[in-house]
Amino acid sequence: MRFTRYTPLTDAAFLHEFRAWCWSRPHPLWRLIKDMQSLQRDVAGMSDQLSQMQKAVDSKLAALQESVQQALDTANKDQQQRQQSQTTA
Q1: Residues 38 and 46 sit within 8 Å (Cβ to Cβ)
Q2: How far from the centroid of its chain's Cα atoms is residue 32's Cα?
Q3: What is the Cα Rg of the chain in Å?
């Protein structure tokens, strides 16, 4: 059995070496943070799109309700005119 001689590192030197080693490698947590930020941007964009779509649907629904109301008013007016013409005839 062969023993090699090594120099024990002091706490400060060990921390310095450990930090250098950690910084030299891509940390999986950083990738997760970047992925999370990307997802947050995507969700914010989809939220904006959803609110724009909701506004468009609301305006089209309001226009449709107005058209239906006008059609009902016209139909009621025509029905009243027919009833008046039948009673006078």
Answers
A1: no
A2: 19
A3: 38
- In the chain, the amino acid numbered 58 is D
Gap between the Cα atoms of 26 and 24, Å rounded: 7
Distance CA 71, CA 78 (A): 11
Answer yes or no: pTM beyond 0.85: no
- The tokens for 8 are 């024990």
What would the pLDDT profile of 39-49 be if each residue is shown by its tens digit? 999 999 999 99
Contact 9, 19 (CB under 8 A): no
For residue 31, the one-letter residue type is R
Q: How far is CA 77 from the centre of its chain?
A: 47
Distance CA 64, CA 52 (A): 18
Residue pair 9/17 in contact (Cβ under 8 Å)? The answer is yes
